[in-house]
Fold:
Amino acid sequence: MRAQFVLSEIGVGLRRNLTMTFAVVVSVALSLALFGGSLLMSDQVNTMKGYWYDKVNVSIFLCNKSDAESDPNCAKGAVTADQKKQILADLDKMTVVQKVVYESSDQAYKHYKEQFGDSPLASSLTPDQMQESYRIKLQDPEKYQVIATAFDGRDGVQSVQDQKGILDNLFGLLNGMNWAARAVMAMMLVVALMLIVNTVRVSAFSRRRETGIMRLVGASGFYIQAPFIAEAAVAGLIGGGVACGFLLIARYFIIDHGLALSEKLNLINFIGWDAVLTKLPLILATSLLMPALAAFFALRKYLKV
Structure:
């Protein structure tokens, strides 16, 4: 098979069906950009999980005088010195505990003022209204229930709170958004495949005389199909290249420059360029193979060669 013939047929086909080719390029580009974006979102969520789960604490909040008057969990009064010693001793014996930090009511008040000093409520609070607490770093953040079972409801303990639960809600929301993007991506891929099939069939129909002559002179089935398959593959590859460009531009302007989220949200550990670059070969391979396979199966039935 002469490469020059195939290339010339590709050019003719793309020019002859320029509008449909443009539609194929756009649909492939959008669907694969969403595909790459969903993969990167998964990487981002996993990166954030690894970063934040390593920092989460379980907090044991102790009863104070204000709680003794209003909270049923503190009906027996504010925590005593003996109760605090016993709680700390029990924590030291637990193998799931990596580190324990005690926070006094004065320290809690200071931290609250640093974080929420502008809040109207901050001016009405006093240190004795803040709760003492033990901040516990676990060996495994999944073992929160061990701490909750051991200390929830104990005398002097107002509540046991797991910061991981707050993060789980956030990550659940992010995962939900990711699955929504994948659903849109799947619909776009279906649209792209339908456009590819129709484009190939229109191209084959417009050149049915040439393909009929080629069949009469003994051309092989693959020789007849190759230009059509290559047209679809080239259009898809162009769309894949555009999708890769979208991802690179999005990473550059959203995280590094423009919005500059890496500077404004320095508490978030964003994915690096390596995560983006490793996805590009997969996107390009998909953009090449998907249209080629769609065209191959469409032509088998349509041309019957």
Observations:
- The radius of gyration is 31 Å.
- The mean pLDDT is 80.
- The longest helix spans residues 163-206.
